[in-house]
Amino acid sequence: MEFNSVPVLEDGNILLTPLIHEHFNQLFEIASDPILWEHHPMATAFEKKTFEKFFAEAINTGSLLIFDKIKGTTIGCTRFYNFNSKESSVVIGHTFISRNYWGTGYNTRIKSMMLSYAFNFVQKVIFYVVKENIRSRKALEKIGAITGDEVTRVYDDKSLVCVTYHIKNPLYPEQ
Length: 175
Known about the structure:
With 175 residues, this protein is an alpha+beta fold. It has helices at residues 24-31, 48-61, 106-118, 134-142, and strands at 9-10, 14-18, 64-68, 73-84, 89-97, 124-130, 146-155, 158-168.
């Protein structure tokens, strides 16, 4: 079995499914909240023109729509990227969820589903978080992610200082 960056993952409440063009309106409804983009390089992604660019990138790189099966509603998106078989790692990121779901445990469950899947293929999952994004940093620390180095990443022609985090596969604790 090979790593698939857009698997269908689900539990009793959440469905992660490959993002397709038909999801644009559902996702833009959530993305139109400016607070979601406070620490993102595309800080104006709450505007339709900027979000179209974000969405096109999400489609082209392979992303996952996050769907609440209980309420029957879209709540955000996320993605796996930079799978590296040689280093046995993959990155999870570009996640945003509706503020209605902040503090509800959904983000923790989404990450848990993604980690469980990834650990079938890799020994380490990496996250990059803009240094000032304290909310996302705390969420990662809450699920056991270990703080790493600060790195400068260029995104959309903007340099951003990010903090790296990682979680190691519990089946390979010595790595």
